[in-house]
Amino acid sequence: MDMTLGTHTTTQARPAPLRYSRTWDSAAAGIADARDAVAALLSRVRPAPGKRSVQDAQLVVSELVTNVAKHAPGPCAVRLELPPDAAALRITVTDTSPDPPLRRPPDPRRVGGHGLHLVTMLSNGLEVTRLSYGKRVTAIVPLTAE
């Protein structure tokens, strides 16, 4: 943003988004690391997001990486991005399977298979993009202050 002060122009730098990215050879190895990365990234935000928002974001990243561990062979990548306004955390998981994640019909008697329901409930939508080597799944988790 440029502001004119008399005859001088001052440029104020916009704050940069906070980012994190990591790749693992196996998604199973990355589940706990991804949860820790969410907590570490959100701990840098002021005002701090509420505990519930941090837990929701950790659950979303955990579910997305767990799906990769169960259904996609090969490496997995996680990217976290938090814009300067810190209103929402963008979580992107990339894997080697071309198959989109499938939401099973709800069944309270079934063990497992509820992760995508949780992800869609806690995020502002789920976007799946096919890539030449697999897919990218993105969820945006809203954050609220304490």
Please describe what this structure looks like.
By secondary structure, the protein is α+β, with helices and mostly antiparallel strands. 31% of the residues lie in helices and 31% in strands. It has three helices and seven strands. The protein has a five-stranded antiparallel β-sheet with strand order 3-4-5-7-6, covered by helices on one side. Strands 1-2 form a two-stranded antiparallel ribbon. Strand 1 and strand 2 form a beta hairpin. Helix 1 packs antiparallel against helix 2 and helix 2 packs antiparallel against helix 3. The radius of gyration is 18 Å and the shape is globular.
Q: What is the global morphology? A: globular
Order of strands, widest sheet:
3-4-5-7-6
Strand content: 25-35%
Helix content: 25-40%
Our Rg estimate from Cα atoms comes to 18 Å
- State the total count of DSSP E strands: 7
| Quaternary organisation | single chain
SSE run: EEEHHEEHEE
Mean pLDDT: 86
Q: How many individual helices?
A: 3
Structural class, from secondary structure content?
Answer: alpha+beta
Largest sheet: 5 strands, antiparallel
Q: Ranges with pLDDT <50 over ≥5 residues?
A: 1-6
Termini separation: 30 Å
